[in-house]
Amino acid sequence: RKEVEQDPGPFNVPEGATVAFNCTYSNSASQSFFWYRQDCRKEPKLLMSVYSSGNEDGRFTAQLNRASQYISLLIRDSKLSDSATYLCVVNMLGVPSGSARQLTFGSGTQLTVLP
Amino acid sequence: DAGITQSPRYKITETGRQVTLMCHQTWSHSYMFWYRQDLGHGLRLIYYSAAADITDKGEVPDGYVVSRSKTENFPLTLESATRSQTSVYFCASSYDRVRSPLHFGNGTRLTVT
């Protein structure tokens, strides 16, 4: 089982739709979580951190479910400009400090918002 | 502008040549990372550094060398480039290893012919 798993998609949704992505992680000691977006092999850009109580930034809502070990990203009122690949990142503090596995990227979920 | 910058943006080199990719950050972040990204693969960690003069291997270190004599710079050297090292290379930095997100440079697209 991969340590961080995402549905690769693609998700094709019409403009204005609500879309949600999940990301599951295997290490229960994971402590910090992030969502990034990446456009067409440009650099990943931080979209938002994910806090235990859930957090919202405009049309974007991130949630953490520790019991089921997943994080989610909800995008409301999708815009054409939201088309991108969304990466979840999990910081697994349970692994040995300094291990390359400590910060693990999901493989990304591709979103295309259609006019 | 403050931030993290990579150079060159594009590089074409021949098999067997040595090539160095540069990374510079102005935030004084302790941690710096080198990733490669290939079609069909996610981001794979090559090397990382916790501080000046402290570096360690990531997932795919073979064929690469790094150094970090100054906090702000973290160059990546391909000692003898191979075609399999054709990739997009991203440098990243973070304030710490626990809570802080990574901030990425805009990448170097390397082609080895």
Which structural category fits the helices and strands of chain B?
mainly beta
The tally of beta strands of chain A, per DSSP, is 11
Total number of strands of chain B? 11
Using the CA coordinates, give the radius of gyration of chain A: 14 Å
- What is the beta-strand fraction of chain A? over 45%
Distance between the termini of chain A: 37 Å
| Proportion of residues in helical segments of chain B | under 10%
Oligomeric state: heterodimer
- Silhouette of chain A: globular
Largest inter-chain contact set: A-B, 23 and 22 residues
Structural class of chain A: mainly beta
Helix content of chain A: under 10%
How much of the sequence of chain B is in beta strands?
over 45%
Principal-axes geometry of chain B comes out as globular
Largest sheet of chain A: 6 strands, mixed
- State mean pLDDT of chain A (0 to 100 scale): 89
Number of helices of chain A: 0
Mean pLDDT of chain B: 93
Order of helices and strands of chain B: EEEEEEEEEEE
Q: How would you characterize this protein structure?
A:
The complex is a heterodimer of chains A (115) and B (113). In chain A, strand 4 (30-38) and strand 5 (45-50) form a beta hairpin. With 115 residues, chain A is an all-beta fold. Chain A is built from no helices and eleven strands. Chain A is globular and about 40 Å long. Chain B is built from no helices and eleven strands. Chain B has strands at residues 4-7, 10-13, 19-25, 31-37, 43-51, 54-57, 64-66, 76-78, 87-94, 103-104, 108-112. In chain B, strands 2, 4, 5, 6, 9, 10 and 11 form a seven-stranded mixed β-sheet that branches. In chain B, strands 1-3-8-7 form a four-stranded antiparallel β-sheet, with no helix packed on it. Chain B is globular. The interface between A and B is medium-sized, with 23 and 22 residues.
